[in-house]
Amino acid sequence: MDVPAPLVRGAALLRCPVCSAPLELHERSLVCDQRHTYDISRHGHVTLARAPAPGDDAAMVAARAAVFDAGHYAPLTAALARAATSAASDGDAATATDDETLEGGAAAGGDAAGGGEAARGDAATATGDEAQAGEAAAAGDVPQPGEATASRDEARSGQAGAGDDAARPDEATASGDAARPGQAAAGGAAAGPGAASVVLDIGAGTGHHLAGVLEARPGALGIALDTSRPALRLAARAHPDIAAVVGDVWEALPLQDGVVDLALVVFAPRNGGEIARVLRPGGTALVVIPTPEHLAELAHLHAVQVDPEKPERLERTLGAHLQHTGTEAVRWTMQLSQQDVEHVIRMSPAGAHRGEAEAHAATVTGSVELRTYRSPDVGGGG
Ligand SMILES: C[S@@+](CC[C@H](N)C(=O)[O-])C[C@H]1O[C@@H](n2cnc3c(N)ncnc32)[C@H](O)[C@@H]1O
């Protein structure tokens, strides 16, 4: 079986999780100069972590995929795509050529990607920081280290078995030539905003949001990073430009310094220092966290404790490394069937705390903050 084309493109951006040396593609393996070797699975992903936590199990991943397939989170995907386009425009405005972008050319500061942008579609958007107070239920979000949630340990348990084969129609044969990071990313097709850029989705899950963002940034290379192999099997097939990498946020990310133009963290763990390290100078991070209203109508169906200090933790985690440049409040309404309700509960850590109450069809609120952070233009991302 051939090596998936995005892994061919992205190989030179990755680094060894043991010794941090660059990796090169040799046949179906990534190898560093110390001969640490990482085989590409038949499902299309490669494991670049020393001891990755299991991440979401197959049942959680299947529930998440069903919710996305039904379109219930489409307004959030659309908001991310708009913010990604805005971030690309800012970068292009300050950069003469794709090569300079990939070499870490400066991006325009100031404007928040997505912040202040009017809502389209059925996502009702209010700008400003008014939604930042008191984040609620972890229904949807992954607890961060030290958070007072009941679900953290259980959320890590249990990974499920084999899925289907992830062979792709667009797979390319591996070449022995390892391009430098910029060249690897530049292997894509199109011109226009975001061409030849690198989008890293940290805790990408099924790759659904990343695929939506890549549609808005033609030619970009997407890297879906997660500890969940069942999730990455789907991510590897979610879009022709997604490279799927098993990596753990709480280890050093298996990417070289400054090679990422745009990082996404959607309901997933956040390691500020590592995000800053892998972002290029002037690069952008889009971070999504739930507000207290998110899925509030379903709170009676589970028992997940709330960490009232979550927003402050986010600021401590990311604010120490990146500049917070804007917040967009994204709200939408979901008409959920009884089965949809079960899926929405089961796809998150709240599912481990599903109570006895019977689920019913319901009109449910989606409500998140989409926060934009910038890596400093000068002096690196650390
Ligand atoms: C709530 S899901 C969100 C998935 C995706 N971002 C989305 O919005 O659909 C959280 C994801 O983070 C992953 N995850 C949990 N702990 C992780 C870790 N330490 N490193 C990388 N991924 C992790 C889970 O496997 C899961 O896919």
TrEMBL record:
<feature type="compositionally biased region" description="Low complexity">
    <location>
        <begin position="174"/>
        <end position="190"/>
    </location>
</feature>
<dbReference type="GO" id="GO:0008168">
    <property type="term" value="F:methyltransferase activity"/>
</dbReference>
<feature type="compositionally biased region" description="Gly residues">
    <location>
        <begin position="106"/>
        <end position="118"/>
    </location>
</feature>
<keyword id="KW-0489">Methyltransferase</keyword>
<feature type="domain" description="23S rRNA (guanine(745)-N(1))-methyltransferase N-terminal">
    <location>
        <begin position="15"/>
        <end position="48"/>
    </location>
</feature>
<dbReference type="GO" id="GO:0032259">
    <property type="term" value="P:methylation"/>
</dbReference>
<feature type="domain" description="Methyltransferase">
    <location>
        <begin position="199"/>
        <end position="283"/>
    </location>
</feature>
<dbReference type="Pfam" id="PF21302">
    <property type="entry name" value="Zn_ribbon_RlmA"/>
</dbReference>
<feature type="compositionally biased region" description="Low complexity">
    <location>
        <begin position="121"/>
        <end position="141"/>
    </location>
</feature>
<protein>
    <submittedName>
        <fullName>Methyltransferase domain-containing protein</fullName>
    </submittedName>
</protein>
<dbReference type="Pfam" id="PF13649">
    <property type="entry name" value="Methyltransf_25"/>
</dbReference>
<dbReference type="InterPro" id="IPR029063">
    <property type="entry name" value="SAM-dependent_MTases_sf"/>
</dbReference>
<keyword id="KW-0808">Transferase</keyword>
<dbReference type="InterPro" id="IPR041698">
    <property type="entry name" value="Methyltransf_25"/>
</dbReference>
<feature type="region of interest" description="Disordered">
    <location>
        <begin position="91"/>
        <end position="190"/>
    </location>
</feature>
<dbReference type="InterPro" id="IPR048647">
    <property type="entry name" value="RlmA_N"/>
</dbReference>
